[in-house]
Structures are given as C-alpha cells and as structure tokens.
Design goal:
single chain, 8-stranded antiparallel β-sheet, 6-stranded antiparallel β-sheet, globular, disordered N terminus
C-alpha cells in the first residue's frame, strides 16, 4: 500500500476519514437528474428546497438565492447568516449586453472606530477572533435586499417563508453540523468561562455540549428577526430594533460597532472580473475577493502552459502527473501574488488588473518548468512572503432559473459560529471577519498566517477574502456553469478544480464535485492531497474479483501519481477536504446540479412545475 503521507491541518468543519468512501459512492451514482425549469445547489437539503420553491412559484434565480441564503442562516449557523456578509454574482441574459452581469459586494466592513493600529491597542489576544471587536459591520441583509431590488420577481416578504419555518419548526442536526459542533465544544471546554460569555451558542446551538446527530434545533429568536426583516426590509435590520441589539451585543463584548456604522452600510454593485478559458467567458468576483484573480490566473496559465507543450488539458486528464504538477505550480504563483499584493485599496485593484493581463498569464505559463518546482522566490511577482487567511465558516449556493438567469453566491461569518458573540434576542451570531485583515504588520492571524499591509484595516474597508463565486458562459452567451465553494483558501483551489473538471474534462456535475482534489497555497510549501487521489478506499469485505482488481489498479495508479509528483520536488501532505463545492452545469436544454459530499446537502430543482429533490441522495 502507499505509505501514509504527512498530515496537514484541516479546515474547520472538514470531512472526516470516511470521505474517500463517500466520494467513491457519489462518483458511481446513477445518471444525474436534468432539471428543465431551474435548480439550486446548496450544502443543506432544506436550503436547496427553499430556493426551488421560489423557482416553482415563478421566482427569478435571485429570488431563489435569497430564500436559500436565509434558510442557510438558520440551518448552517456555524457557516453563514444574517450576522455576516458575502458576494453575489448575477448573470441575466434577458438584459442588454453590458448590463447582464453584476457583482454585488456585501462583505463585512470595518467600523468607523477601527484604524490600522486598532488591534495593537487591545490587550486581549483573542480580540480579532472571539470578542465584539472581531465583528465587522454585517452586510448580508443589505446585499440580499439590493439583489432583490435589481432582479427580484416575487414579493420580498414571500422569500422568507422557508427560513421562518426552519427556525420555528426546527431542523435535524446532520453529520456536517456535528463536525463543527465537536470543534466548538472542545473550544468551550478548554475555558469554562466561555460558556457564560458566549452562552447562546453553547446553550442553544450546542445544547450545553450534548448536541447529537438527529437532534432538532429550533431558533424562534431568529424567526422573529426574519419576520421583522420580511416586513421592514433593509431598514428593519440596519436602523430598527435589530440594529440596537447588534450594537448592544458587540459593545458589551468589547466591540465598537455603532448605530451610525450600521445605518451607513451600503453594498457595492461592480462589474465582475472577466477572463477567458477554452473559448468560454469566465465571470467571477473582483476585489476584495482574491479568489477571482487567482481563478483567472490559474485557468489562463494552465491553458497557455498546455499550448506551449503542444498539448491540451483533456489529453492529459485529471489524474495525470503532468496536469497535477502544472496545476500546483499555477496555484503557487496565484497565492504568492495574493499574499503580497491584494487588498481593498485602489493600488491593489490596479495590481489585480495587471495580474490577469494576457502578458502576466503568458509569464506564469512560461515560468512553469515541466520537470521541477521553483525556489521560493520564483513564484508570483517576487514579493510574496506570507500565505492567505482562512475563512472556515462559509457556505456557497449556485442557482439557475428556467429563463437562464444564474446566481453564484458565497456567504460567510468567517470562523465556525463566527465570533461566537450572539445577538441573543434575535438568535444569530456576529461574524469575526476582522481577523481576515492584517490586524498588525507582521502579526499572525488565527491560523498563524501573515499578510501584507495592503490588507490593514481602516474605517469602512473590507477585508480580503478567498470567496470565488463564478459563472462560465458558452460562445452563445448561455450559462454553462455556476460554481463556488466554502473552505477558506481552499475555496479558490476547490472552485478551480470543479471548473476544470467540467470545462476541460467534460465531467458531470456529480463527478466534478466528487473527484479528489489537491491544494497548494504557496506557503507552507506542502502540496495537500485528498485521500481519494493516491489512497483509494479499501474494497468491501465481500467485494468480487473484478472489484478487487479495480482497487489494485487504483492503488498502483495512486503510487504512480505520488512518485511522479515527489520526483518533481513536491512535498506531499494529506488533507481530508479541499473546499466544499456547489455547482450547476448545463446539460442539453436543462441543468445538472451537485452538492459536495464533503459537507452533505443535496440539490433541488423544478420539472413540470414541481419541486424535486435529487432522488439519488440518501437521507
């Protein structure tokens, strides 16, 4: 058998050791369902169904995305919610050329009292992580309201029904919830005083540390908040009773968010970042998302590198050492540039434009040596000295409606259960997005990582993100693929590989998200590999001769890949999960969808006017 690889740190909430088996089962599933009237892929079945309900009622893809997001706020409180922020990429083919695509940035922003030296003046080492000071001004409600104003078809209040039901009736704790709960419980038990300081999460969402799979979690407080927002819209959150309680919760826990910060929050509507890959237009998110820059760099460099080798990516295949080596090298260049140059500043936006120019992509391709890795200074713009931050508490959803409108939406509260500071009367956690800033020059964040001064905090500034919502269009301008992921910096690498699996290798939606993935973020200098790539699961005890022989060949193939990568100079490490990807892809006149088995969830769509969950998913 292949010797065990050195284990690298997993993302919070990553899948457990059974992942390889789960992926194998998913990859071998029956023919994917094709939805002709729209589909939603989210990481919880209730959230996907919420969006599909809106599609069945004649709602737009944006209506479906809003209903899905609100439901995720209830059923995935460790990952996202109305106390956080996000990015939404929208493409509407019915609008005039030049107005079809918009990128909504509703990332959390720094309060007015936060300057570059703010966190250095605080004595608490957890100030940017688990205090009120960790919370940026939430943007999710403002972003959803703006999306609805521009692209909604159903009444705003109608989009809240599924989320309110989930909050009042409750939802069952699943395996993904339990992975996050176990991590949080360990954190609480390490310091018992936290059980009082962050009591709502401990008592309600973790059930005093006794939460178990199958338990039903109810959150009537968040249902009350959702009803207020359904009636009062944006202002109910940013200027009303909810706003007063946000200020109280943040300031009681040492934060500085004010009523003025909330009332002044505004989402940004900007042009998407755009690239080309294998004849497709690729739309993705601009800064403060670093993911869009890195994605376009990776795809553009790979296409050019293959052409320089008189080959195509399809000829190499997704398990070819040649492809995996080139993909890793492209990731390293992109992440080196991200760490050194990117942030929410005019200078960083100018740098991003240079990084995705044809000349820059040609340069990366030319610098990839097919036989070996480069010394540390050989990657990126030559300025990189540190890796990117990690956004563990994140969720992505992908939607296409029956008219061809598409939404790729990624939302976050940063770490698991965010800052763990709850707005208790309304049942939601505040984010801890301030830790995604460079909180002090040279200082490390929660993950022991350093970043550049381009990402220092300032009043109203938004922290650098890895979120990578992406839409690919075919030559006729039709939506071909909607993709995105959760998982910190693994968002970028997970999304890129799902995009490549569909556009370069022609995989179905299921196979594209289930296939094993790799991750490299330049530093630490380790190529993290999911088990299924070079450590296939053992055959079942009752496996027949054909299955045993298939597994023997898989083991031999894994050994070949491992040896080829190590010969090129890669240090391999084992990681259980590289991102959690949700995709929708065109299939004839309809769409397939897939929710990543690494977190569970399942898609739901509409056919013949009826909502249908994916029938192949075991619940």
């Amino acid at each position: 058998m292949i010797p065990p690889l050195r284990r690298v740190r997993q993302s919070v909430g990553a899948a457990g050791p059974a992942l390889a088996g789960v992926i194998a089962v998913a990859a071998a599933s029956a023919q994917p369902t094709v939805y002709t009237e729209g589909v939603v892929a989210a990481d919880h079945a209730l959230a996907s169904r919420a969006g599909a309900e809106m599609l069945a009622r004649g709602g737009s893809a944006v209506d479906a995305a809003i209903a899905t997001s609100l439901t995720l706020s209830v059923v995935r409180p460790m990952s996202c919610g109305i106390g956080g922020g996000g990015f939404m990429l929208i493409y509407d083919p019915s609008r005039p050329e030049g107005e079809r695509a918009v990128a909504l940035d509703y990332r959390e922003s720094a309060p007015a009292a936060v300057g570059t030296d703010f966190f250095r003046t605080l004595d608490d080492p957890d100030a940017s992580r688990f205090t009120g000071a960790a919370a940026g001004v939430p943007g999710t409600v403002a972003g959803l309201a703006e999306a609805h104003r521009r692209f909604g078809a159903l009444p705003w209040a109608d989009l809240f029904g599924p989320a309110i039901r989930a909050a009042e009736d409750g939802f069952a704790v699943d395996e993904s919830y339990m992975r996050s709960a176990r991590e949080a419980i360990r954190w609480y038990e390490a310091d018992p005083s936290r059980k009082d300081r962050f009591g709502f999460v401990w008592r309600r969402l973790l059930r005093d540390g006794a939460v178990a799979e199958g338990d039903v979690i109810r959150n009537p407080e968040q249902a009350r908040a959702l009803r207020l927002i359904a009636r009062g819209g944006h202002d109910a959150f940013y200027t009303g009773e909810i706003a007063r309680e946000i200020v109280r919760a943040a300031q009681d826990a040492g934060g500085v968010i004010t009523a003025e910060d909330l009332a002044g929050y505004t989402p940004r509507a900007v042009r998407p970042l755009e690239g080309e890959f294998l004849g497709r237009r690729v739309l993705t998110m601009p800064l403060p998302s670093s993911g869009g820059v890195a994605l376009i760099q990776t795809l553009g460099a790979l296409e050019r590198y293959a052409a320089r080798r008189d080959a195509t990516l399809a000829q190499w295949g997704p398990r070819s050492p040649d492809y995996l080596h080139a993909l890793t090298e492209a990731f390293k260049h992109a992440f080196a540039d991200r760490a050194a140059l990117l942030g929410d500043t005019p200078e960083a936006r100018a740098a991003a434009a240079r990084l995705i120019s044809p000349d820059a992509l040609d340069s990366i391709a030319a610098r990839i040596d097919p036989d070996t890795t480069q010394p540390r200074g050989g990657y990126g713009a030559g300025l990189a000295a540190s890796p990117p931050p990690d956004d563990a508490g994140t969720s992505h959803l992908s939607v296409v409606d029956g008219r061809g409108m598409a939404v790729a939406c990624t939302e976050t509260i940063n770490l698991t259960f965010g800052s763990r500071v709850a707005v208790e009367p309304f049942g939601f956690c505040l984010n801890n997005e301030m830790d995604d800033f460079t909180t002090a020059p040279g200082a490390v964040n929660a993950f022991g990582l350093r970043q550049s001064d381009a990402n220092l905090p300032a009043p109203g500034k938004r922290p650098l993100s890895s979120m990578t919502p992406t839409i690919a269009l075919d030559r006729a301008g039709r939506v071909e693929l909607v993709a995105g992921a959760a998982g910190g910096p693994r968002i970028i690498t997970g999304t890129a590989q799902a995009v490549l699996n569909v556009l370069a290798f022609g995989m179905s939606a299921d196979r594209a998200v289930s296939a094993p993935r790799i991750h490299h973020q330049f530093f630490p200098p380790v190529l993290a590999v999911e088990p299924g790539l070079i450590e296939p699961p053992a055959p079942a005890a009752d496996a027949g001769p054909a299955e045993v022989m298939r597994m023997v060949r898989a083991v031999e193939d894994g050994r070949r890949i491992k040896e080829a990568l190590e010969t090129r100079g890669h240090r391999l490490g084992r990681i259980e999960s590289v991102g959690v990807v949700q995709i929708v892809r065109r299939s004839g006149d309809g769409f397939q969808a897939a929710s990543d088995p690494r977190r569970g969830g399942s898609p739901a769509g509409v056919r013949a006017g009826r909502v249908e969950a994916d029938p192949r998913i075991e619940r």
